[in-house]
Amino acid sequence: MSDLKSKFLEVYSVLKSDLLHDPAFDFTPDSRQWIDRMLDYNVPGGKLNRGLSVIDSFKLLKEGKELEDEVFLACVLGWCMEWLQAYFLVLDDIMDNAHTRRGQPCWFRLPKVGMIAANDGLILHNHIPRILKKHFREKPYYVDLLDLFNEVEFQTASGQMIDLITTLAGEKDLSKYSLPIHRRIVQYKTAYYSFYLPVACALLMSGENLDNHNDVKDILIEMGTYFQVQDDYLDCFGEPEVIGKIGTDIEDFKCSWLVVKALELCDEEQKKILYESYGKEDPNCVAKVKELYKTLNLEGVFAEYERKSNEKLVEFIEAHPSKPIKAVLKSFLAKIYKRQK
Q1: For the chain, which has fewer Cβ within 10 Å, the N-terminal or C-terminal residue?
Q2: pLDDT at 156 over 60
Q3: CB neighbours (10 Å) of residue 332?
């Protein structure tokens, strides 16, 4: 494990201890034990990319001149990202009726958890302002941080809403699905919180005004869109043991990049197969859709999309005037280009 990651995990223990002894609530031994277990199960279990990217970005912006206590605060903001991710995923899994997450059963699937997970999602959400208040209240950018988290949470929840109402069960209508709809869902549901938020946190810590960095936001939203297209692709073509979950986008009637591209490329006969098979639990229907994806060479179409997206992003990044910001954007792109999980 890298030094940075082990330091980051140490900060998790500090934050968890603070929250388990929050003076605003009189914990019973049972409630404290529940939160302890719930946090360990849902917060630190992923790849931690979002959290670590706050620290990476901050260090690149400071060009090696960061102080020890600043790195601690960057770690704290990184964990706020991971708490946010945990809150979204706990609730997302309930909404999607999912089975596995990060290679283990979804939290709500555990026998003694069930729908208590909905309240746990709210608690995870409420932990974020508690953490921010404790560590950033005296900072000049405290209000900007609160605004940033509030805005990005609103954008993400709104993206999730578009996703859910577009894929309403009982109203399965593939004609609603198009690239603009897919892009809109992806931009709001994923790109803002996974790509813009970590860099925006690092910029605020560096004393920057976010209004001066709309170009950075635009590049990161493009990157987040590319990331989600990769995710859609891996849901179907990735290995479950590598990606840590069993893809169910076909069964769940998701507005996935793959189905949108298939609708663009298929003839009437193939479209009929899609309309009849997409969104059904039946393994034969799922196999038919996957077979159609192969016939339409969506693996090749994706490879071309990936190449072009990377070229376009590299061009945008190279044109940016700031060397430290350029370094941040390059490090983000390097992490996701041609990823397998």
Answers
A1: N
A2: yes
A3: 24
323-336 helix and 214-237 helix, angle to the nearest 10 degrees:
10
The tokens describing 46, both together, are 């992923």
Give the chain's end-to-end CA distance (angstroms, integer).
19
**Per-residue pLDDT tens digits for 95-143:** 988 888 888 999 999 999 999 999 999 999 999 999 999 999 999 999 9
- The answer to whether the Cα torsion of 307, 312, 315, 320 is positive or negative is negative
| pLDDT tens for each residue of 69-101 | 999 999 999 999 999 999 999 999 999 888 888
Q: Which residues contact 307 (CB under 8 A, 6 or more apart)?
A: none
- Rounded CA-CA distance 79/3 in Å is 16
pLDDT band at 327 (very low <50, low <70, confident <90, very high): very high
Q: What is the mean pLDDT of the chain?
A: 93
Strand, coil or helix: 275: helix
Torsion, CA 306, CA 309, CA 314, CA 316, rounded to 10: -170
Measured CA to CA, the distance from residue 195 to residue 50 in angstroms comes to 8
Mark out the alpha helices in 21-114 (DSSP H runs): 29-42, 49-62, 68-96
CA atoms within 13 Å, Cβ hemisphere of 67: 5
Structure tokens at 297: 């060479």
- Phi-psi region for residue 48, left (φ > 0), alpha (ψ -120 to 50) or beta? left
Crossing angle for the helix pair 283-295 and 298-318, nearest 10 degrees?
60
The pair of structure tokens assigned to 190 is: 């994923």
Question: How far is it, in rounded angstroms, from Cα 74 to Cα 59?
Answer: 9
Report how far apart, in Å, the C-alpha atoms of 140 and of each of 73, 88, 204, 320 are: 14, 28, 9, 27
pTM above 0.85, yes or no: yes
The neighbouring-strand residues paired with 105 are 100
Position of tokens 């746990």?
120
